[in-house]
Amino acid sequence: MSSKLLRYGVATVILLPSVMAFAGQGIRQTDVFTSGTHSYHTYRIPAIIATPRGVLLAFCEGRKDSRGDSGDIDMLVKRSMDGGRTWGEQKVIWDDGPNTCDNPTPVIDRTTGTIWLLLSHNLGQDSEGVISQRRSKGRRTVWVSRSDDDGVN
Is residue 34 part of a domain? Predict the structure, then answer.
């Protein structure tokens, strides 16, 4: 599977052969997150994964105020039960006010079906450059979240 970012923050999912077999159709393109909707200026850093039961989960950063890499950024998810033809409601996984919740990295344990989501967090006022120079007011931390029900909770 692959996902890519197009047109200034429209996260588009391209469904490839492993998903096409489930979907029963040829290659198609679907806009999953569209900038300027649901109170988000921009959607960035999409990641998609298929669960052992065939549910597609699309994760994305929801950037409230700009396309920038710092500030008020929430972690979001949408679910598809039909191979990506349609997508459910957008859900906020993590919103820490003015801070940055970013870099979704989903992993599936194929034995248990557990979905692990690794993500990072830092103060919204700390830019990438300041963090990498170790001059930030806070620290960037890595977090792990999990779901045992195909991303419902």
Answer: yes
* CATH number (domain holding residue 11): 2.120.10.10
**Residue 77: inside a domain:** yes
* DSSP string computed for 37-85: STT-SEEEEEEEEE-TTS-EEEEEEEESS-SSSSSSEEEEEEEESSTTS
CB 108 within 8 A of CB 51: yes
Q: Say which range, 7-11, 61-65, 112-116, has the weakest mean pLDDT.
A: 7-11
Domain annotation covers residue 132: yes
In this prediction the pTM is 0.81
Question: Which of 1, 23, 20 lies closest to 12, judged by CA?
Answer: 1
Q: Is residue 152 part of a domain?
A: no
Q: Look up residue 5 and give its amino acid.
A: L
What percent of the chain has pLDDT above 90?
A: 69
